Fold Ig-like domain-containing protein.
Amino acid sequence: MTLVYFPLILVVLGRVGMATGCPSHERCICNVHDMSMACEKLESITWTELVRQIPGYVETVRIIGSTFDAELSNRVNFVRPKPNVDIPLKVNVHSLDIVGSSLANLDETAFQMMPNLKEVHLVDAGLNTQVLSYLSFLKLVEVVNLSHNKLEEFPYGLLQSWPLTRELNLSHNRITNFDFHVSSKSSSVKLLDLSYNHISFLHPDSFENGTSLLELNLQSNHLKYLHPMIAEDLGQSVVIHLGNNPWACHCGLEWLVKVLSSQKQSNVAFADPNLIRCASPPDLQSRSLVNISVNQLRCEQPDFVSYPTHQTLRFMESKLLECNVSGYPTPSVYWLTPHGPIVHPDHKYWVPSHVASSPDYVHFSGRPSYFHAAIEAQSNGSLLFEDFRYYFDGQYTCIAINPAGSVDYSLNVTIFVSLPNTITMSLMWGFSSSGCFFLICMIIGGILHCRRRRDGFDLSQYYPELTITFPDDYYDSYCDQSDESYYCDQSPLQSYKPSPYRSPKKCVTPAEGMDLDRGWPQTGANIRETLESVRARLRQNMEKQVDKMKSQAQHVKQTSHRYMKNMKSSTGRTMKTLRHTSSQYVHKMREGMVLGVEQVKNHVQSMKELCGTGHMSHTISTISVSTDIDSNQKKAVVKSITYV
């Protein structure tokens, strides 16, 4: 059963008065008898404004060739209203038909205004993925028609939001995927129309969870093959439309030929079997599968045209691994990688079901993650490495499969990191990190400098000064000796002025000076004590440094001694090995020379016996050179042997 929409021809008689409660538009007509409202070519109006003007008795709304403006909240970028807040509700509207209009400006409250909709026909309405998501608010909808909307994908998970939906029409779109298995078990859809789309592959497990389908329309798509598991998983008495698809007639469709020719029982029934025709090979082109025998379906097992080779790639290198295969039908090629299987979407016809759900690429997941790196399956079966990393190192297997069989080949892909690249990367990271720290310090220092200048601090270098003032009536020198025989005229510190405390014959001792006055002598004693403590600390630090240097020198000496000892031992063993090897070589050469001379003797004796006695003679000269390894002196010995 296919949903067909008959266009509505509106006859505009004039503006409908307020008595009917119809919207104040010349292009809208309301009918009280069939409780409907029809509008044509509406402009300069929002969806909310139109819904507010729908009379309360209307159950069916039909809109043709209209364009709705964006909501005011969207135009001025206000916050959108919350659901069910200040929006008009039309609970009596059960059917909504919109044809040849533009619904791109609808917001999420559009279908919340009609929560009791049971039939929704949005045909050629300029739908997009965002507007489709707004349909999830329709919990009571039973019939959904979304044909002629140029949809490239449909969110099949939306079926879980429609528990009562019986019919879903997605015909005349551009849908390429068929993921009905995502929600097939929880869906109540009886009729699914996917005709006139771009579907080229059906997953073998599309209906493994069971389904309530009674009719599936897949005619006029790009199907070349249908897996037998699909027919087995469908329920009893299911009708499938498969006509007008470019079927590739080979041994993989043997089960379908047997079902169509009544040679095999099946759960499903195929509508219009005469429309299921071959597009390839050329000898079966345009022939119906009903009129083809199983013997005419041929296959060739996959075979490698060229084998991929083991690869050693450099860090960040890009490489293409080719896996060229032949066979009929064209084999599907997928790769087993260290991170799971990957397969291109064009190669999912013959692969196992668990591989058909695999992606066509593996991205690099590591640090630094902002570097793009990936391995990606190509449409020709090759494998592309982009910016190779350690993450991709491992074994890779190319597998080619078709209905006649499969072949595989494994290879290892390793990484080679050269020392210059490693050093370059290390230096680059080191300089960049140090440069960042230097820049941060410069910025912080500049900010602090400007702040101190602003606060009036003097930023010039400051050197502390020590000033000592001596009173005029104090003596400016005293003796550091306690000996009574020590006189002041022998002291290097002379008094510039006579002091009443100065003795004419001897210097005042520190103790006496301290008894006379508690000021300056005490200061001198403190200075001397400070100097002595500083001198002691310096002496102690120097002793520690000297001890440390001695220990380091001793460690270096011991290390050097061990190194020289090991090197001497290693050199001795090496020389001993060389001497032994050389002597063996010389001995073997001598034995070879002796053996050669003996062989020459035997040959000459044989010739003599053969030719008899005569004047034939042979002289053989040999030169042997011997070298003394210890003294490196060469000695040559010449030996001549004459045979007659």
